[in-house]
Amino acid sequence: MAKVIAVNAGSSSLKFKLFEMPEEKVICSGIADRIGHEDAIFAIKPANGEKNETICNIPDHTIAVEMLLEALVDEGIVASLNEIKGIGHRIVQGGAYFSHSEELNDRTEKLIEELIPLAPLHNAAHLIGFRAFKKALPNVRQIAVFDTAFHQTMEPQDYLYACPMEYYEKYKVRRYGAHGTSHMYLAQCAQSYLKKGQNKIITCHIGSGASLCAIKDCKCVATSMGLTPLAGIMMGTRTGDIDPSVMPYLVKQTGKSAEEIYQEFNKKSGLLGISGISNDTRDVEKAALEGDERANLAIKLYARRVADYIGQYYVRLGGCDLIVFSAGVGENSPYFRKAMIDEVKEALHIELNDEANNTMVRGKEGIISSKDSAIPVVVIPTDEEVMIARDIVSILKLK
Ligand code: AMP
Is 354 considered catalytic here? Predict the structure, then answer.
């Protein structure tokens, strides 16, 4: 038995989950949020216990990691820090260097650093998290799990942009995708829903960030996010695919800088931008049910963008044996799932079972399509952290 920590470090936050492996038992989870602020939040919650939350000064990630390790001992979650045998970090951008998770060492650290221009906020923050743990637990080995790794099996026709080739060669501009750890987890779980000889899946990770993936034989064939997570379907606050000419046009018309417009594409668009209400599907859904026209339009637009990709991937895969919904919206909103399936049902002969759709929420897994549906539709709650924990065990060869 070994205890391992799955870490997701952002620029001002550090989320963690402590597992007992190989049982895959979650022992506790928590977050240090608003790092860098005097009124930062530190919260830790044992799997079967009460959440313990404090507001305090957390100047940097090193202090956040020290607090986390102290809390594990103080709260009696571990008897000693020697029990921790491995740490795994979610890394947003692995570029073309990483098609699998790897141990963090001088070489891999340098490569992740080299990729910072492709994911400035994320990769820099992940490295800060790694170094903070290295300082606190110098003898514990650490691994990197890349959000892009699963998508490295795409062919050039799927990952290249049709811009001058030198931008790919010199600056590595191409589609990398994201949410790879989630899509891989879903593909593995989905195998149990496939009949003999079936191998084509479309996974829909629909959360506040959202992406689709076309998967054949458990390998990624195509995915909707691009160089960055801004591409693909419309999301909570992101535009998704948009004509690049909109950018220079708006710069000219509004007098705003390209960076300001870019921030708006990332943070003020999507469901929030169209509905004018919220980026949270719960709020938009409620408003739509109360007759708000823009909320209703936002949902219709969202559903159609998802349908566009399902149609595209149906063609790309040469058919589809299973559609999977997951993440915050995909796991919890029967309303959105129905809106999305309504857009493809005529072409693909998909029928939802309304009762199953309405009950498959809050962590439940199961089929939501009817027996007559040409393609089964299933809800599978995703679990990126357990994938990180599994990779820690296999890469570090823990027993
Ligand atoms: P994620 O990024 O996967 O954590 O998803 C978060 C998003 O899921 C939220 O912003 C909401 O839009 C959506 N969500 C979470 N819970 C529900 C729910 N019960 N009903 C509808 N949407 C939900």
Answer: no
Q: Is residue 394 part of a domain?
A: no
Among protein residues, the one whose CA lies closest to atom 6 of ligand 1? 328
The residue annotated as part of the active site, out of 60, 74, 106, 147, is 147
- Which CATH number do you get for residue 271? 3.30.420.40
CA distance 14 to 30: 8
Same domain, 126 and 218: no
Q: CB of 283 closer than 6 A to ligand 1?
A: no
pLDDT in tens, 276-299: 999 999 999 999 999 999 999 999
What is the overall mean pLDDT for the chain?
97
pTM recorded for the entire structure: 0.96
Nearest residue to 88 via CA among 98, 74, 102: 102
Domain that holds residue 62: 2-146
- pLDDT confidence band for 39 (50 / 70 / 90): very high
CA dihedral in degrees (159, 161, 164, 170; nearest 10)?
A: -50
Whether 296 maps to a domain, the answer reads: yes
Characterize the bridge pairing of strands 322-326 and 200-206: parallel
Residue nearest to atom 19 of ligand 1 (CA): 332
Are residues 130 and 376 in contact, defined by beta-carbon separation less than 8 angstroms?
no
